[in-house]
Every structure is written in structure tokens, then in C-alpha cells.
Amino acid sequence: MTAKKTVLITGANKGIGFETAKRLAELDYFVFIGSRNPENGLLAVKELNALGYKNVESIQIDVTNSESIKNAKVTLESKIQKLDVLINNAGITGEMPQNASSITLSNLRAVYDTNFFGLIEVTQHFLELLKKSDEPRIVNVSSDLASLSNHKNPEYPFYEAKVTAYCSSKTALNAFTVMLSHELKNETRFKINSVNPGFTATDLNHFTGTQTIEQGANAIVKYATIGNDGPTGGFFDDQGEIAW
Ligand code: NAP
Fold this sequence. Notes:
Number of strands: 8
Bound molecules: NADP nicotinamide-adenine-dinucleotide phosphate
Strand order of the largest sheet: 3-2-1-4-5-6-7-8
Number of domains: 1
Shape: globular
Radius of gyration: 17 Å
């Protein structure tokens, strides 16, 4: 297999994940396009191949399915010696509305299964392979809606968006970023950060986002490729640090 740097992106068959895959392929990384639906993964690879990127391959991974995560790990281990970057991008919003007083536990659990528990299970499975890299990076794709400081600030543009399951699952994801980066701070040159892509037009919001996917991928690419002097355990967008 290739000596290029390697990256696995979950939910990379479309949206911000797909654009991130394209950008990292452009930077000469070997990109594993995580897709829960294998056909959609292959279509994404085909699209990137047609643009001239041959350094991409799809891999089936459903972040809510332990068997699928295990299989993806075995597949990757048979192909590469080390994983340089893991981008935990797969995410869902869940059914709306999500008022705190009435959201169903099944809705809450489904959102947490993907955005929080799934992300942790994927990360734990790929840590060993990441530890073999000289410069391992993990980007946990979060949201400014995760910020409790934003939710306390009436001036925050999305102050009214108290989307209980989605927002709190991303807050929990941010807590995981803090815990894991702290645990690994002395062990290797890990850089583990939460990144907010910003309000981006994708399926997730029925294309109501005000940014393009190119803009949405900017901060993710930046923290996926950050140097050894870069931060770890932080929460960022393309403007800089975000309050927790
Ligand atoms: P998107 O176009 O809906 O893409 C979401 C991706 O996640 C799809 O590839 C989807 O796969 C995948 N996914 C969902 N559940 C999965 C599962 N169980 N296993 C594996 N993959 C799964 O949305 P997006 O806007 O690009 O979102 C990407 C990330 O950015 C998400 O974490 C989202 O929360 C975050 N974000 C987005 C915005 C925004 O404004 N768009 C803002 C802040 C944060 P399928 O195609 O199979 O459904």
C-alpha cells in the first residue's frame, strides 16, 4: 500500500464529508471514504476518480453498528500500517421538533447513537492504528450549536435553536474531545480537536445552510492537517476558538 498519509472519514459519501475527502485527496492523502451504504461509497469514489483523484477508496462503516466498525477496522488493518487522520464526520439531526420538555427518549437515543456513542466506538477501534502514525490527528465534527456559552447568549444568531438531541449530543462529543485529548497528551503527538464547519447547505438542513460545502470543509481540513505545534483538546471553526 501507499506511503502517503492516510485518512478515514466517516459519512464521506456526501455533504461536508465528501468535500473534505476531495480536499484531502488533493493534498495527496490516501482517503478512505466511509459510507454506511456501500453503493453510495462506490459512487463517491467514482465521482472523485472522474475528477482525477485516484488516491481514494470506499469502506463500509455504519457508526451505529459494532459489527460494521469491527469489519472496517479489519479491512483497514489489512491495507495500511498506520492511520494518520480520523475524521468523525457522520452525524444526524434526528426527528423534529426536539423540545426539551417533550422529546422522546427513542429520538434522543437515536441521535446519541450516531453523534456520540458511534463516534466513541469508531475512535476506540481505530486508536491502535492511529498510534502507529508519527503525527496522528482526530477531528470530531461538532457544531456551534454544541456551545453552552452560545446557548446562554441571547445575541447568538441561533439562540432560539434549542434542538435538544442534536445540540446536546454535540456538547457531549465536545466533552469526549476534552477527555481523550487529555488522556493522550503525553503519549504521542496526537492532536484531537472538535471542529465546527458552520451553517452549510447540505441534506442535513435541507440545503438551508448559508455556506457552501467548500467553506464548510475549511476548518476540518485545517485541523486534520495541523502541524505538531498545533493545539489539542480545543473547539474551533475557521475563525478561531469557540467557547465551550
Ligand atoms: P449530510 O450531508 O447529511 O451528511 C451526513 C453524513 O453522515 C452522510 O454521509 C450520512 O450517510 C452519514 N451518516 C449518518 N448516519 C450514519 C451512520 N449511522 N453511519 C455512518 N454514516 C452515517 O450532512 P453534513 O451537513 O455534511 O454533516 C456532516 C457533519 O457536519 C455532521 O456531523 C453534522 O452534524 C456536522 N455539521 C453540519 C452543519 C451544517 O450546517 N451542515 C453544521 C454544523 C455541523 P447517508 O448518506 O447514508 O445518510
